[in-house]
Amino acid sequence: MTTTETIAAEASVLAQTYAPLPVVLTAGRGVWVRDVEGREYLDALAGYSALNFGHTHPLLVAAAEQQLRRLTLTSRAFHNDRLAGFATRLARLCGKDRVLPMNTGAEAVETAIKVARKWAYTRRGLPDGRARIIVAEGNFHGRTTTIVGFSTDPAARTGFGPYDGGFDVVPFGDAAALEAAVTPTTAAVLVEPIQGEAGVIVPPPGYLAAVREICDRRGLLLLADEVQSGLGRTGHTFACDAEEVVPDIYILGKALGGGVLPVSAVVADHEVLGVLGVGEHGSTFGGNPLACAVGEAVVSLLEPGDIQAHVRRLSPVLEDGLARFEALGVLRHRVRGLWAGFDLDPRVASGRRFCEELQHHGVLAKDTHGATVRLAPPLVIDEEELVLLLERVESALLALRRS
Ligand SMILES: *Cc1c(COP(=O)(O)O)cnc(C)c1O
C-alpha cells in the first residue's frame, strides 16, 4: 500500500485520537527510519523518548529474540527466572531496594499514587480516604481517568469527569506556592523534574531541591515522574540527578522498554513500597519475562554511564544550534541533554506547519501546544547526525520564512 492508501485505511477504521504527520514508517535502525516509499528520515521524536537507544538496537533485539523463544508470560501467579535479575539491577541503578513492575507509564503513575495514599494512611495516620497529592500545572502523567482529572490541559481533561478530587494543582517551578498548598492531609508531591509534554519546560535552578526539602520538613513523599526525563535523556540517569535530588519514588517507563515493548516500574525503598500487601496491586503483564529480558538489557546499557556522558558531550552542539535559530524565528529554546523544546514565532509557522516542513527536509519531529516543537532524537545519535539534524531544522526554518 502507498502512503495515501495506508492513511486512508487508518482513517476509516481507527478512533481519531491522533493527528499523525502524513508518513507511513516501515523500518528503523538507530536514529533512522524509512517510509513505505523508501524515503529515509532522521527520527527526532524517538517515540517520545521510548527509543532512547534508537530503533532495533542490536543488544535489545537480541535480548528480546532469545527470550521470545523461551518464555514470554507467566503472570505473577508463578515466579519466572528473569524478574529478580531485572529488578535487582534496576533497583541498584536507582539507589533503591524495591521494584514494582508495570507496563505503561500511566500505570506506573497510578501505582505511585496508590502507594502514596496507602503510605499516608498506614505510616502517617491520615484519616482514611482523605489523602491529597500536590501536582503541577501543565503536568502530563498519562491518560487514565484519575490522571486526566488533575491535568490542566482542557483537551486531555474536558468531558471525562467526574474527576477524582484528591489532587491540588500548583504552578510548576514555584516552590513557595507548593509549600503554601500543603495541608495536614497532604500525602505527597507528584512532579515531572522537567515537563516533557508541556514543551520541555525546565524549572528554575534549585526548584527540585527546594521541593525535596519541603517534602522532608512536612513529612511528604516526593514522587518523581521520570517516565520521559529519565534513563539518560538529560545526560544523567535521572533528571533529578542534576540537582542531586533523590525522590522517594521513581516512576519509570518509556525507554525502560527499549522501544521494544511497554515496560514501566515504580522504584522505591521497602519502607515505602512495603505498604502494599498481597492482593493489593498487580498487573497481568507486569514483570513478564520478555519485558524483564529487555528491561535488564536497557539497564545494562545505562550502568556504565557512557551513554549519559555521550549525551552531556553532545548537548552543547544542540544548544548552540538552537541559539543560532533565534535569528530565524525561534523565540525561545530550552535544552537539557539531548532534549530540546523551542517556541516558534507564530508569524513564521505553527508548530504543526513547521513539523510538516521539517518532514520534507528528512526529519520527523512533533509539535506540542501550538507553537512549540520538541527535538528528542535517540541518544545514540552521533555528532555528525546531530549536525545534520540541525542543518535540516535550519533549512526548514529558512523555507518557511521564504514562503
Ligand atoms: C508518556 C508519559 C507518561 C505516560 O506514559 P504511557 O506509557 O503513555 O502511559 C507519564 N508520565 C510522563 C512524564 C510521560 O511523558
CATH second-level architecture of the largest domain: 3-Layer(aba) Sandwich
Alpha carbon gap, first and last residue? 32 Å
Bound small molecules, which ones? pyridoxal-5'-phosphate
CATH superfamily of the largest domain: Type I PLP-dependent aspartate aminotransferase-like (Major domain)
Order of helices and strands: HEEEHHHEHEHHEHEHEEEHHHEEHEEEH
Question: What's this model, at a glance?
Answer:
It is built from 14 helices and 15 strands.
Question: Which tags fit this structure?
Answer:
Aspartate Aminotransferase, domain 2; four-stranded mixed β-sheet; 403 residues; 14 helices; seven-stranded mixed β-sheet; binds pyridoxal-5'-phosphate; 2 domains; Aspartate Aminotransferase, domain 1; 17% strand; alpha/beta
Give a topology summary.
Layout: H1 3-13, E1 25-29, E2 32-35, E3 40-43, H2 46-49, H3 58-68, H4 83-94, E4 98-102, H5 105-123, E5 132-136, H6 145-148, H7 154-157, E6 167-170, H8 175-180, E7 186-191, H9 207-218, E8 221-225, E9 249-252, E10 264-268, H10 270-273, H11 289-302, H12 306-324, E11 330-336, E12 339-344, H13 351-360, E13 363-364, E14 366-368, E15 372-375, H14 383-402
Parallel strand pairs: 3-13, 5-6, 5-7, 7-8, 8-9
Antiparallel strand pairs: 1-2, 2-3, 4-10, 9-10, 11-12, 12-15, 14-15
Bound molecules: pyridoxal-5'-phosphate (PLP).
Pyridoxal-5'-phosphate binds next to helix 5.
